[in-house]
Structure formats: C-alpha cells, structure tokens
Amino acid sequence: MIPDNLLYAKSHEWCSIDGDVATVGITHFAQEQLGDLTFVELPGVGDTFEAGAEMGSVESVKAASEIYAPVSGEVIEVNESLEDAPEKVNEAPYGDGWMLKFRIKAAPEGLLDAKGYAAVVESESH
Amino acid sequence: MESLATTPLTDWHRENGAKMAPFAGFDMPVQYKGIIIEHKHTRAKAGIFDICHMGEFKLVGPGAMEALNRVVSHDLTTLDPGKCRYGFLLNQSGGIMDDLIIYCLGRNEYMLVVNGACRGKDFDQIRASLSAGPVLTDISDETGKIDVQGPQSLAVLETLTGIKWNDLKYFNFEATDCLGFPMLVSRTGYTGELGYELYLPADKALTVWEKLAADERVEPVGLGARDTLRLEIGYPLYGQDLDEEHTPVEAGAGFFLKKESDYIGKSGLGTVRQMLVPLVIEGRRTARHHDEVCLPSGEKTGIVTSGSFAPSLGHCVALAYVRAEDAGTERFVIKTARVELEAKRTELPFYKDGTARMKV
Question: Is B318:B312 a contact under the CB 8 Å cutoff?
Fold first, then answer.
C-alpha cells in the first residue's frame, strides 16, 4: 500500500506532483495506525506553509495527531468533504481521502520515494 | 517489561487480524475491522467480546451473606438466588476500590465479578475483611467469560444453546449444562444493548467463541468499541471514571447505595468534593482523558476522565470530575492539547435508544 508514483514525508504525508500543483494526504500506514478517523482539521485556501510546518490535525477514536506540509507553497484547494466524512481517509487515503492541493513555489526537497518510505514504515512497525 | 497474560482466545484474535494492546495485564484485542464498524454492528445486530481478563471469585459457606454484606455496598439481604446486582467495594474512607457485580448462586453462595486490574487487591481486601467461616476462592484462571451483546443477541444465544432464553430478565441469570459443561448465562452487559454475559470453563471458551463467531449475525468486537459503547450509555470505567480518590456518590452512582446497614467505607460517603458530570461537545472534535475542564470564566474546575467521539451520536461526549459546587453549571470549557472546546452539561444516558432493558 505504498504507491510507486508518489513522494512521501517521514511524518507520513504523501504528495503527488503535477506541474506546480501538489496533491497531499496522509498515507495508508498513517490511517491504519490512527484507526477510524473522526475529525480532520485543514487550513484554508490561501494559507501558505513552509515544508515541515504543521498544517492541520487529525483525530481518531483513539488518538490525535498533527499533519505537516510536505512541500512549501500556497493552499489552492481543500477537500471539504472530509469535514463530514473523515472516514474517506481510512477508505481511500490516496484517492477520495486526499486533503489539500498546494501551488508549490519550489521543487520538493527531502521527500522519500516509495522504497525509502517503505523503510520508514518497516522501522516503525512492530 | 513484565510479560502479558493471555486469554484462551488470544491466538484466535491474532489469527483473525485483531490489533492487540495491553489491558489489565493481558494481551487484548483493541479492534478487528475497525472501532466504528464494530460499535455500529453491536447496536444493530450482535457483537461478541472476549472478557476472559476479568476476575471472578466465589464465596461459599456458613455466614457468607452476613459477612459479605458488611464488606460491599450491595444489599445482599434482598438479593435472591438467580439474581445479580451492581455495586462497589470501598476503602475505609469511601473511595472506590472496585465496581463489581455479585451473583447470588444459592444460600450463602456468591460469585463476585471484578475488574481484571483490581483482582489482587480486591481479593486481599475482601479476605481480610471476612470473618472465619465462609471461604473465598479466586476462580478467575479457570473461568472464561464471553459477552454477547446487541438486539440480536437473544437469537444468537438461542442458536448456540438450542434452548429459549426469553424468560430471563435483566440482571437475572441461569446456570445451564445445555452445551455439555456448566455455563452461567447472565442477562447483563456493558453496552446498553440487550445482551448476555456467558461464564464458562476457560478450556471451553475457544469452542464457544468459534461457534458464535461463525454466526452470520455476529462480529467480534474489541476493547476500542467496548469503550465507545459503554461511554455512550455513561457506564463508568474503573481506573478512569472510578478510583480510590472518589466515592460512588461523587461518581453519580448514589442510586446504587440504598443499603441501610453498615459496610466498609460507608461513613465516608457524606463527603462530596467533586462530582462526575456528563458533557456533550458539539462537533467531531474530541476531549480526552486528562484534559482540563474550566468554567466559562477560565477558572479550572476539573478533569475529563473519559472522552470520545460517539459513533451512534455523531459528536463527542465526555465524563468529567468537577468541583461539587460547579456540578450544576450548564456550560464548561474543555482545554485540549490543541483547542478549547465548549461543553454542555447533559443527563445520562448520552445514547437513549439502547435495548438493554427491552422485553423479549
């Protein structure tokens, strides 16, 4: 469950780059660790972030966790359907459960490919 | 780290994809398919729960009733064979050492069902408080416990046993040999739904569990959904909502304290410093155990003891201890790690459509 065509942050966000637009979400491993999501807090359109900055949070029945911007840029679209249906993140973390689209201001740095992220998952699984 | 104890069903849980975590010293299933799905299935159909970690004692012998009646808050003088009752074991100052159900098996013959984590201290406290005569035995290791809960639990139980159980009333139980070994069937539970708790020999637990799990109306349910199910009803959890720092009166369980005769800790019940209050939070954000509870002025008045998104309600509910003088306040502010949430005082149960008491 680690698609080859995406880039990953060690903090378990994924991003897909298309020109200067990055679509961002949390990974299958992250949603599995959190369990059933009950709340997703996302920034608004127009907010800007540096890569690595806290951009929101997610809550599940058993836990709460911050989510971090994997790229630097401006938020241009928010998946507002997650407000009433956070379970989409559990059901399709790389599909309907996407969270944000960024207009990136520079090429992403320090992100992992699928193989690199698989090693992170491996080291955090037990 | 001390190694975890297992139940007769631990291997089954692992083989069937459960996420496991330590609870009360046992390696227990938190969830199989997901907390919300298991929660909703229990409210709609039937869930089965591995509760083998809980403790069971037997007290048998001349004078058992009088002796136990001086130790626990339950009024055993009015508890007839075939009935069970909820109540408390208190310390000398009235703090709750445990909440427990006592089954009257016969004249001077009782079974006590206690929380797994409290088993050792309960046994020592009760034994030390008993006069000579009745004999207290810890039968936890040889006793298995499986809960079957949900509106279809009666039908599931009838399929399992091949006999009718519709005459069994709420907080009544019956011993049966219908499966070829002794089993105690109790119409009780911790979900607010129609349900049964089965006490059986530990070495028969796997067979019975597998038969139940094969029933298409049934899903196995982990401790995660057990927690959200009980919280929606407002049932307290020992170690969070109940502890030795609070009396049953403070925990809002004064209803269960009708006994006139004396028992350990009774004299401490008049001191009320804090009260456990039920709170509703609009929206999906959750208050959690240890979050601070404040008055609208910002002054701190207490602590959240249980808080969760309530799957059957679609918003968050919480239980919190607040200063007794603030317990009548309508609105509070809960400070979580991230935000301040507005909370409104309500009445229990949070979820009002439970089937536990329905006539069947």
Answer: no
